[in-house]
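Thread: quick sanity check before group meeting

JM: Hey all, I'm pulling together slides for Thursday and realized we never actually wrote out the predicted structure for the chain we discussed last week. Dropping the sequence here so it's in one place. If anyone has concerns about the input, flag it before I start.
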Amino acid sequence: MRLLRVAFLALAIAAGTNGFAQKTTGAAAVGRDAAKASESKARLTFAINEGAAGNADFAEIQFRYQDFSDAMEKALGMPVGIVSARNRDRLQENLKSGAYHLLLSRPNDVPAQAVRDFGYHPLATAKEPYQTLFIVWKDSTLKKIADVKGRTIVTPDQYSNMWRAAKAMLREANIDMSRERVKSMRDQAAIGWSLENGFYDVGVVNSASAVGRSWEKNGGRIIARSRDQINMPFIASPQLSAAQITRLRTAVLALDSSDAGRAILKRIGLPGGFKQTPREDFLDFLKWLGEDVRPPV
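JM (edit): ok, ran it. Output follows.
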């Protein structure tokens, strides 16, 4: 009986020890999960949109913008995760829902609308502005934008920021683009090729594109330039504090003041660096563009 009592006591102690160990392990697991959840909540989402013609996959985006993201992490003292946001409609939806904390975008109308409609804050824009260009090949008889009326026009994607800018330019020339013969292409290089080979009378390209930069050098002509437009806007969610916004803006504007910062800017294709751009400039730009006329999805 005595041995039996000792055996029962040993079993009870073992059971109690195992229960304690399980509770301790469970508590540790809960603690780890809570820590992960907390870290996830603290992580900022940094979306990048290089426009309709941007063909880089996520690995390329990650490689090109990682140092820029690291600079933002250093400024904020918290992790920043990169997201490639290539789809324009989804980008707008995610900005509306507040899914993105930061956005750097080549299409300038989407971030401008986020500033106007969803409470986002302008951090900076590229120092080098860009223009929308109406281009013709060297043997064209067209000399000014008024001559475009009744001619065939090829533009970037319908309802894109450049399409909207072209529409605004024609509107200023008293031409209703909806009444003109307009076709759209995704690739600006294809637009240039189409003009060179006589498929269209006039094309619309971005001054910062390879076609826009080299068109006149290659014998083509530019018959109209838009007003300077905000270029590559960098905006922040209203979820960020005023102090965080100030730290981010300071870090971005200072990139061109050091060799390391200039290397980052060169890698992301903005060697000229950033400048501060007030909210009013975004609103004025949208007013010039006119309302987004896309049909509902």
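AS: nice. The longest strand covers residues 44-49. The chain has ten helices and eleven strands.
JM: adding both to the slides.
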